[in-house]
Specification:
There is one protein chain. The chain is of the alpha/beta class. It folds into two domains: 143 residues, Leucine Aminopeptidase, subunit E, domain 1; 320 residues, Aminopeptidase (3-Layer(aba) Sandwich), CATH 3.40.630.10. Helices cover 35% and strands 20% of the residues. The chain is built from 16 helices and 19 strands. The strands form four sheets. Strands 7-8-10-9-13-17-14-15 form an eight-stranded mixed beta sheet, with helices on both faces. It is elongated and about 80 Å long. The chain binds ligand BES and zinc ion (ZN) (2 copies). The site of ligand BES has 16 residues, from helix 12.
Length: 483
Amino acid sequence: MPTVSLSTTKPATARADALIIGIRNDEDREGFSSALELLGFTGEKDQVVAFPSDGAVKADLVVAVALPDEPDAEDLRRAVARGVRAAKNATNIAVALHPTGVDEVEAIAEGIALGAYRYEVYKSKKKGKGAKKAPELKTATILSPFARQTLATKAVERAATVSEAVNITRDWVNTPPGDLRPTAFADAISAHAGTTVKVSVWDEKRLAKERCGGILGVGQGSVSPPRLVSLTYEPANAVAHLALVGKGITFDSGGLSIKSGTGMATMKIDMAGAAAVAAATVAIAKLGLPIKVTTYACLAENMPSGSATRPGDVLAMRNGSTVEVLNTDAEGRLVLADGLALAAEGKPDRIVDVATLTGACVVALGERTSGVLGNDYDFGERVLASAKEAGESMWPLPIAEEMKALVTSSKIADLRQHNPKPYGGTLYAAAFLREFVNDVPWAHLDIAGPSFNEGSAYDYTPAGGTGTGVRTLVKLALEMSSK
Ligand code: BES
Ligand code: ZN
Ligand code: ZN
């Protein structure tokens, strides 16, 4: 990640490979008006043009990005990232986006770190023509009159911590599934957590002893056994207790209810929820927020084999209830059920789970908006407000009343895992999860759409893993710690 610093230097005198300048009005065009005119820069939303400075400013390249008259934090986060991507080979940049306060400085710092993200671990190191790896952005200087204020420095530090969390989530999601099976993922989370938070990993033997039949049932078809990673951050001054649960299916083939080839192609992403909750927990700890966080990452590989769970099998879950499995591709709710039950046992004030749970949610809300469901209207509203502040698109969905009877309609077990009717799949899944939270106020984030960008990069969203959910969770923790 680039090192971001602050300076009161004027744009014209800032030394850098590239100067990213925000254009709100005619005044901002001064000095560049003929270049902007020739390039057809009208100032319309999302526009970005780059041209050699030719001595007009100290930087070699000028990157002009369009801004509205009064940009908000999200406008700035997006605009700077567009600028960063336009200055592809720059190793140092200066950023003149006219922040009007500390929140805006923080958003710009986030936009730089998130926009500069690339995933090139598996690219070969060819040099010269056809080279696959472009030079990396090393340093960025945000030009701002607030540069000397401690609050601004703190905001930049906060942005670095949060961006690091988003970017490691992206890395984990992008990692090929054969290289990130449950044990490897558990190791990666433990390594990232270091000594910042307490980590404990349950292997398959311990999972059996602890009666986690959901996680075991999903993982039993794979030669790579399941894991449950628990993270605990417990500062002495905690004013609230938040529990997080993440779906960590390192690859979702569908199991015996096997997916089609195209349906399976991107299913390495099915651990994005676990990645987000783990990375967010470490970020919350690094920020030193006065809130206790207990996090459960439920890791399993969903594979078809002679040892796999069959449709028709009954699993005995952590909370003592039994579940009739009817479609092994609806595996997320099974691993989450054990994670939610464990979370509820700790009697937290609030639970949030994050999961790439249903294709139906993508049908309902599109690829860029997550669904928010739960058992507590007010808490749902708080999560939505945190998402809005963080700049993540989320929208509420109901757990329709009729779902309760459907979920409890198994003829041979307590709960029925799958609704054979193809309607309201996202709501049914949430109704199933609700059975495991023990009435603790709970929100469920279905990130099936936004967790992965199948197209090319836009704004600060790269192609591939997006790290969605992390920023909302950190904002929520921040909000819960100031009550
Ligand atoms: N991992 C998928 C959901 C998914 C789909 C995530 C598309 C991201 C993009 C989940 O395990 C799944 O397969 N769900 C089924 C549920 C169905 C069998 C009730 C689905 O959505 O089709
Ligand atoms: Zn599935
Ligand atoms: Zn899945």
